[in-house]
NAD kinase
Amino acid sequence: MRIAVLGNPGNQSQRVATELKQRLLASGHTLDERQPELVISVGGDGTLLNSFHRYNHQLDQVRFIGVHTGHLGFYTDWRDYELPELVQSINEDQGQSVSYPLLSVAVDYQDQEEPSHFLSLNESTIRRNALTIKTDIYIRDELFESFRGDGICVATPTGSTAYSKSLGGAVLHPRLEALQMTEIASINNRVFRTLSSPIVIAPDEWITIKASSAADYTLTVDQMSSHNRSIKQIRYSIAQERIRFAKYRHMHFWSRVEDAFLGNAQQERRLTHGI
Ligand code: NAP
């Protein structure tokens, strides 16, 4: 198989990436960063986000695997001490995969005729640093609310355990075809009124954010951000493309959530209360 191994710059990730490459070569695979069939990211969920953006123009040909050099992640199924088992699974690969929805972000800028398109694995936000943003928010082209506050976040189900969760969003099972919008510090008074709860929209719906004409908004798409361009509107919808992960073993999503967010605290409670 043609495989790209991408590690983050940390020493541990680089060491694990080197060992993994050697093991893959010894098993007869080819290392190919241009046209890989399999992309293995070594680091954390953040490293997998980077790998996704590097190959997001060839998603129909590529499956992803994440190796975590710390704890297990939401995109990272394998730990760094499991390289022999991982390589064995790749040797026995039969093309099995699981796919998850992505967020399509279409941005109309004041100074550009055609919209710019981006794909997001976690979320996209529109924010402003010191000042508040004023936007009208439409669902399916119908005005839903007028927002004033720090910003808006729209997340995929897999992104629901990242920034969206810190904003009070619900954790969504990644098999759901849905998008979640959360507010970032909305102002609610007699003049500005928003729902003030996260909302989850259906697969055939879309969210449009029409910004007032300030030039200093920050638009983020996962770990990337752009500043100081005047944005007319942003249209968020579920993308046609999906991300595919090579799935060699099953891990219950809610076990992963428990492990990541409750972990020892939960275990301690069980021990203390005998439950
Ligand atoms: P990063 O190091 O790539 O990620 C920041 C943290 O978020 C890391 O601990 C990372 O886990 C974790 N993470 C990433 N995707 C996740 C997911 N789907 N579920 C659960 N945890 C996830 O940092 P970055 O390059 O600055 O930004 C990338 C991401 O950071 C954004 O997409 C956003 O979700 C998140 N972010 C969060 C906040 C917040 O919670 N207040 C604010 C801004 C940005 P690993 O340690 O496994 O890499």
Summary: The chain has two domains: 2-95, 101-241. Residues 114 and 178 are 26 Å apart (CA to CA).
